[in-house]
């Protein structure tokens, strides 16, 4: 139960951070990415609150609680936004870069923490749920790193991602 409550507090904190960043930045990529991740964090919170309520009722991790959370939304959205940003002049400021670096740090820590909770799970449902949360936090981390790479060096980002060579391939 303590792990579940700690996870819920973590998701609330992250959501607050992402909402604040979405409201602060003027960069379209950053604003949309932060808002999308905030939506994911709300979904995580809602699921954690539901599990907490059921656990309180039953005195144990509830059986039959589906782990299904939307996956892949952030990565797809960020890649699409980067393609859009390619043709615009919207540059990030140092606060955007700093926020992305900070977000990368806590998403990496979140993924690790949820993986540890999955390893210590007492039921398959609990394990599956924390594995899914870990995977989603990892997706957030990778999306944030992608956006950070783009905003720090747009030209270099496309050279690395598109793997252009001097031979025209």
What do these coordinates show?
This protein has 169 residues and is mostly helical. It has one domain: Ferritin, core subunit, four-helix bundle (Ferritin, Up-down Bundle), CATH 1.20.1260.10. Helices cover 78% and strands 0% of the residues. The chain contains six helices and no strands. Helix 1 (2-24) runs antiparallel to helix 4 (94-119). The mean pLDDT is 80.
Secondary structure elements and pairings:
Blueprint: H1 2-24, H2 28-58, H3 73-85, H4 94-119, H5 124-152, H6 154-162
Helix pairs in contact: 1-2, 1-4, 2-3, 2-5, 3-5, 4-5, 5-6
Cα-to-Cα separation, first versus last residue: 55 Å
Count of separate structural domains: 1
Fraction of residues in H or I helices: over 70%
CATH topology: Ferritin
**Mean pLDDT across all amino acids:** 80
Backbone structural class = mainly alpha
Low-confidence runs: none
Q: What's the multimeric state?
A: single chain
Supply the number of helical segments: 6
The largest sheet, given as strand count, sense and whether it forms a barrel, is: none
What is the beta-strand fraction?
under 5%
Defining traits:
169 residues; mainly alpha; Ferritin; 6 helices; 78% helix
Kindly summarize this structure in a few lines.
The protein is built from six helices and no strands. The chain has helices at residues 2-24, 28-58, 73-85, 94-119, 124-152, 154-162.
């Amino acid at each position: 139960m303590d792990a579940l409550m700690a996870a819920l507090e973590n998701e609330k904190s992250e959501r607050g951070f992402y909402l604040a960043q979405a409201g602060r930045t003027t960069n379209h990529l950053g604003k949309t990415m932060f808002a999308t991740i905030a939506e994911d964090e709300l979904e995580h919170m809602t699921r954690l609150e539901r599990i907490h309520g059921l656990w309180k009722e039953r005195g144990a991790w509830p059986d039959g609680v589906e782990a299904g959370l939307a996956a892949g939304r952030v990565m797809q959205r960020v890649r699409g936004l980067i393609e859009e940003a390619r043709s615009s002049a919207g540059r990030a400021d140092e606060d955007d870069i700093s926020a992305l670096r900070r977000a990368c740090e806590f998403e990496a820590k979140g993924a690790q923490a949820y993986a540890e909770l999955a390893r210590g799970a007492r039921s398959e449902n609990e394990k599956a749920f924390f594995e899914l949360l870990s995977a989603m936090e990892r997706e957030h981390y990778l999306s944030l790193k992608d956006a950070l790479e783009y905003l720090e060096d747009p030209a270099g980002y496309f050279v690395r991602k598109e793997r252009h060579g001097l031979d025209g391939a």
